[in-house]
Structure formats: C-alpha cells, structure tokens
Amino acid sequence: MVVGGGILGLAVGRELLKRHPDSRLAVVEAEDRLAAHQTSHSSGVVHAGVYYEPGSLKARLCREGSTALMAYCDEQGIECRRTGKLIVATEENELDRLDRLEQRARANGVPGLARIGEAEIASIEPEARGISALHSPNTAVVDYGEVAAAFAADIERAGGSIHLSAPVIEAPAGPTGQMLSTARGPVRAGRAIFCAGLQADRMAALTGGNPEPKIVPIRGSYLKVREHRAALVKGNIYPVPDPDLPFLGAHLTRGYDGSLLIGPTAMLVAARNGYRLTTLKRQDFLETVAWPGTWRLVRRFPGATAREVLHSLSPRALVREARRLVPALTPADVVPGPAGIRAQALGRDGRLIEDFLVEQTGDSLHVRNAPSPAATSSLALARLIADRIG
C-alpha cells in the first residue's frame, strides 16, 4: 500500500511492482486527482545537483534521479528540454560564495559544469548582467504532472490499483501489517509506505510515529513575464544563494510550457493548501503558530522573513530583485503567476530539515521530508525506499 498520489508515491508504487510483479499494490490518494499539490505546482525544473551538501541524500539522489528521469522521459516520449542554468554573481562580494558553490557542485559530479566570465554570460544570456557565473548546461524542465501520469499508467499496467478521494482517517497498527481506515472503507496492508507530502507529519503520528519534525506550509509564488517580453531570458538564471539563508532567492525560470517566471517567494502561510494568500484553515494555522520551531525560525531570519513577505505582497519589489540579474525587466513586464506550497519539515529548534528524511515505524515507512529536488529525484528516491522495505 502506498499512501499519496504525488510523483514520489507513484514512483514508489511503480518501483515496488517492478521488483515484486506478483504482489498486490494499491495507491490511495486523498484528492480527487493525482499530483494535486507539489507535483503540479512546481516550476518543472529538473535539477542537476549544484546546491546540495556533498554526501547527503539530496546530492546523491538528485544526480541519480535526474539521469534516470531524463532517460524515462526519452523512453516515454515526454518532452524534457535541457534549457541550462546560469548562477550569476553580480557583485564582487558574491565571488567567494560562488567559489564555494562551484566546489560543492564539482564534489557532487554535476555534468558539464563550467565557470564562466562576463563575456560568456552575455553569449549564453544576452540580457543577463554579471561578473562571473556557473553554467549548468544539463539543467532541464519537464511537466511533472505528465511524468506522474505516466508513472500511474505504469502501475495500472503492472496490475496495481489507484484509488482517489480516499483520505486516510485512522491508521492503527495491527498485530501484523498496517490497518488503514479511509473515506472509502478499511484496508489491511502488509506494509504501508506514506508519501504524504503536506500531511506527512500527521500520517506519521497516526501510526504511532514521532510527531516531530512538523510540516509547515511555505508558499512560493511567481510572477509571469508577459509573452512579448519572455524572450529576455532563454533558459534559467539564478542568483548566488546566501548560505546563511534557507532558500535560493528570486530567480528567472523558463517553464516547460515556454513561459518565463520570476520567483519563487517563500512565505509561511495559514493553510497547507494556501495557494491564495487569503486562504486560512484553522487547524493548519493553529498548528503552525503553536509550533516552537516556527517562531525560532522567524527569529533566526528576521530580515529574510520580512523580505519574503514584501516580495509576496509587492510585485514591484520582486521585479526589483530580479533586475539585479536582468536589468531590462520592468514592473510593466509582469502579471501574477502560479503559486505552490512547499511541505517543509521544521524542527523544534527552528531549523529547516535540509535533507530527505525517511523513517520507519513498525510495518510503515514514512517519507517525512521531501521538498525540492524530490521530483527530480523521484525514481532514485523510490529505489532507496524499495531497498529499505525489502
């Protein structure tokens, strides 16, 4: 049994059926459609592995996963475009950080990585401005919703079943296996793998697992560049990240549909489905504000917290940030774009859980933290999960 019909849950179901073709496997999903949340609300970037701590699961599985995902897309006829990415230093005081990022990327074996200067930046992205950059030519974009649909088709062809509108209400551990009570009736599973995303902490608590770390919903919103100005950027342009901050900063992304996006912001919100800033769910809000880690996170990053709120509320401020990379952009060039919610595990001490986190509780296995690059890593992460459950 797999709980969660996002790209990771579907990748896990597919992998288990490949290894155990005679087994009975079901995927249960709370929503009335697959890939309803993080999978279908992302920018679609297939990451090359630049940012992640060498030796971490993210570093290893991103590299393995991106290679596997691109090969899968080729087999399935799913368009996966290598748009490339520049990580651009615009000021001298960013060069040390760019050096450290280059060292990390090379330790992670990022293919084709090159350090380039001002003239080469202009040859790749004529409207970009910077003094030095890392060029990752194998960064790509794909429609992760289409990939998830292909994984689902693989599951059904292999004899598995998928059940929508089936939220898990209770999950008491039985003497053998895992009992699940869903909105569509009870289910007994020999083993249950929870890839529950925004509900990961709640599902773990239902099965008697550790209620910590807590999932907090972080809303990332984008601005969309008007079509007649979208040619300003050919691929993806990112700033040099501040290692003291938990997110990458405002960047420019060429989406899988050809659109040009600016963002994302990173703002704590009052609902785990808070795609609109005004959405409030009482339980979600109360759990977030009652969690000590929330306030410790804000106290650790007061300036960044205020800046992300400003960027979320003011398109002009977000464009001003993006103009550091592409000065030709103006506020008149943008309209509101899409938004997504990142399911971020947050410790009691106010520290974001940086790496993927997988825990076992009895006959259940829980993916407790799988934000970006989980979609890129989905096939490799599915193999790791299948290895752990045997």
Helix and strand layout, with pairings?
Elements: E1 2-3, H1 7-19, E2 26-28, E3 45-46, H2 57-76, E4 80-81, E5 85-89, H3 95-107, E6 114-117, H4 118-124, E7 132-136, E8 140-142, H5 144-157, E9 161-163, E10 168-170, E11 178-182, E12 185-189, E13 192-194, H6 200-206, E14 214-225, E15 236-239, E16 251-254, E17 260-263, E18 267-268, H7 282-290, H8 292-300, H9 302-313, H10 315-322, E19 334-346, E20 357-361, E21 364-369, H11 378-389
Parallel strand pairs: 1-2, 1-13, 2-9, 5-15, 13-21
Antiparallel strand pairs: 3-8, 4-8, 5-7, 6-7, 10-11, 11-12, 14-17, 14-18, 14-19, 16-17, 20-21
CATH homologous superfamily classification of the largest domain: FAD/NAD(P)-binding domain
Mean pLDDT equals 94
Which regions are unreliable across 5 or more consecutive residues at pLDDT < 50? none
Question: What is the class of the largest domain in the CATH system?
Answer: Alpha Beta
Number of helices: 11
CATH architecture of the largest domain: 3-Layer(bba) Sandwich
What class, by secondary structure content? alpha+beta
Count of extended strands? 21
Q: Tell me the Rg in angstroms.
A: 21 Å
- Largest sheet: spatial strand order: 9-2-1-13-21-20
Look up the CATH topology of the largest domain.
FAD/NAD(P)-binding domain
The termini sit apart by 14 Å
Largest sheet: 6 strands, mixed
Summed up, the domain count is: 3
Tell the overall outline.
globular
Strand content: 15-25%
Kindly state the percentage of residues in helix. Answer: 25-40%
Walk me through what this model shows.
The longest helix has 20 residues, at 57-76. The protein is built from 11 helices and 21 strands. The strands form 5 sheets. A 6-stranded mixed beta sheet has the order 9-2-1-13-21-20, with helices on both faces. It has helices spanning 7-19, 57-76, 95-107, 118-124, 144-157, 200-206, 282-290, 292-300, 302-313, 315-322, 378-389; strands spanning 2-3, 26-28, 45-46, 80-81, 85-89, 114-117, 132-136, 140-142, 161-163, 168-170, 178-182, 185-189, 192-194, 214-225, 236-239, 251-254, 260-263, 267-268, 334-346, 357-361, 364-369. The model has no long low-confidence stretch (mean pLDDT 94). A hairpin with a 2-residue loop joins strand 20 and strand 21 (364-369). The protein is α+β, with helices and mostly antiparallel strands and 390 residues long.
